[in-house]
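Case 406 in the screening queue. Each case pairs one protein sequence with one candidate compound; here the compound is flavin-adenine dinucleotide. For every case the pipeline is the same: read the inputs, emit a complex structure as C-alpha cells, and attach any notable structural observations.

Predict complex for case 406.
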Amino acid sequence: MTTSSHSSIRREYDALVVGARCAGAATAMLLARAGLRVLAVDRDREGSDTISTHALMRGGVVQLVRWGLIDRLRATGTPAVRSATFHYGDEALPFAVKPRDGVDALYAPRRTVLDPILVDAARAAGAQVVHGAALAEVVRGASGRVEGAVIETLDGARARVAARIVIGADGARSRAARLVSAPTERAGRHACGVVYGHWSGLEVEGYHWYYRPGVSAGAIPTGDGRTCVFAALPRPRLLDALPGGVDAVYREVLAEAAPELAAALGSARLDARLQPFPGIPGFMRRAWGPGWALVGDAGYFKDPITAHGITDALRDAELLARAVASGTEAALAAYQAARDAASVELFEVTDRIASFEWDLEEAKGLHRLLARHMASEVELLGALDVVCVPGQPPLPSGASCGYSSS
Ligand SMILES: Cc1cc2nc3c(=O)[nH]c(=O)nc-3n(C[C@H](O)[C@H](O)[C@H](O)COP(=O)(O)OP(=O)(O)OC[C@H]3O[C@@H](n4cnc5c(N)ncnc54)[C@H](O)[C@@H]3O)c2cc1C
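Case 406 output:
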C-alpha cells in the first residue's frame, strides 16, 4: 500500500475531497480515473474503524463489481451472503439473493476492510490520499465562490490548497456542509438508537433482520468468522437506558426482538466493547453550490435501520464524479436531481421504520417498498453508460473541471 504524507500536499488540485471513506475514497478514485488531479484528506487514521454496521445491499455490490474491486473484496475472506431472512415476530420469511446485475452474492465487509480497498483504488488511479489531515476552513474568491480550503494536519500545521471544487464527504456532522452553509432541504422526524458488537462462534447463514413492536435486531456475517449483531430501539428509550449500561440494554432489546439469537449469544464470544449509537434524525442537504459539492452522509443521511448508507454513498460517488468530470454547474444540478430522485422514497420509508410506530403488517409493507426502491437503484446503476473498470475510460473524457453556468 502506498501512503502519502502531509508534506507532499501540493498547492493546487482539480478536486479536493474531504473525507476518505466509502463516499470520499470512491469519489476520489472515480475522479482520478477520469484524469483529474485529486487530493483526498481524512482526519482519521488510515485503516481505522468507524461507527457503523456494514451490510451492503445489491446496489453497493453492483458498484464494486462495476469498478473492478469485487475480487479484492473477496480476497479479504469476507463471506458471500446468499440469503436474507426477515423475521416478523415468530414468522420468518427467507429470500435468496438472486444472481443478476452481475452480482451473485452480497457482502458485509468491516469498514477496516472496505474503506482501505477504496483508498488503495483511489491511489492506484492517481489520487493523493492523506490521512491525519482535516478541513479547517474553505477559501472563497471575491464572488463568494469556494476556490479551495485550508487543511490542518495533526501537528497543527496548515496548508492552503486551491481546488476547482471542494467535495465534502466528511460524514453526517460534515464541517464542509457547515462551512458552505448547505441548507437542509428535507428533514427526518425519527431516529433509532443502535447498539452493536462483533461476535465469534456464532453460526449465522445470510443476513437476518428481526422486527417486533418497538424493537429490531440484526445479524450480519462478516470476515474473520465474525458476525455483527445489532439491537435497535427508539432513541429516547436508548438514552433512558444508557445510564444502566450498554450491555444491559443490548441484551434486553435482543431478548425482546430476537430471542433465539439472544440465546445463541450465550455460547459465542464478544470481540470488543459494544458500540452504542444514540441516533441522528435523517436529513437531505443541498448537494452543490459554487465551487462545492457534498456526497455520502455529508449530503444525505438516513437512519441506519435500513442499512443503506454505504450503498447510497457508493451510488452517489459515481453520480457526483460524473458531474464533476463533465465540468458544468448544470451537471452538478443534475447530480442533485438524480440523487434526490433515487433517494426520497427510501428516505421516507426509512424514517417511518425508524419511528417504531408500525405493527408487523405495516413493517412488511414498508420492506416491500424498500425492495422496490432497491430494484430501481440497481436499474439506475445499470443504466450508467460506461463500465468503470481500470483500463477503460470510465467517465467523460476531456474532463475540464472549469465550471460554467450552462
Ligand atoms: C450505527 C450505524 C450502523 C450503520 N449500518 C449500516 C449498514 O449496515 N449498512 C450501510 O450501508 N450503512 C450503514 N450505516 C451508514 C453508514 O455508516 C454511512 O452511510 C457511511 O459511513 C457514509 O459514508 P461516508 O463516507 O459518507 O461518511 P463516513 O463513513 O462518516 O466518513 C466520513 C469521513 O470524513 C472524515 N472527516 C470528518 N470531518 C473531517 C474534516 N473536517 N476533515 C477531514 N476529514 C473529516 C471522518 O474522519 C471520516 O473518516 C450505519 C451507520 C450507523 C451510525
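Case 406 observations:
- Residues 18-19, 21-24, 41-44, 50-55, 134-135, 169-171, 175, 194, 277, 296-298, 304, 307-311, 313 surround flavin-adenine dinucleotide (CB under 6 Å).
- The two ends are 40 Å apart (CA to CA).
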